[in-house]
Amino acid sequence: MSINDELLEQVYHENCPGCKVDRRKRIQTGLPIKELICIWVVVLCVGEYIAYYLYLYVKNRINE
Ligand SMILES: [Zn+2]
Question: Are 32 and 39 a contacting pair, CB within 8 Å?
């Protein structure tokens, strides 16, 4: 068995994060909806924070 064959043969270890991600990538087809929703929630929270900061900034500038 050559080195190439050993690399092609997939060996999954138990409790190995890299192997879990690798297996999920092989199984999954289409859009990763769960991951996208998670990222979208984070984006919304950060966006709200920035909007509130800008609101306070503009309000203070007007009051000066
Ligand atoms: Zn592994």
Answer: no
Q: Decide: 23 and 12 in contact? Cβ < 8 Å.
A: yes
pTM of the model: 0.50
Q: How far away, in angstroms, is 31 Cα from ligand 1 center?
A: 24
Q: How far is the CA of 19 from the centre of ligand 1 (A)?
A: 4
Q: In angstroms, what is the span from residue 38 Cα to ligand 1's centroid?
A: 25
Q: Could you give the 3-state DSSP secondary structure of residue 10? A: coil
Expressed in angstroms and rounded, the spacing between residue 22 Cα and the centre of ligand 1 is: 9
Q: So what's the pLDDT on residue 53?
A: 96
Distance CA 62, CA 64 (A): 6
Tokens encoding 42? 């984070």
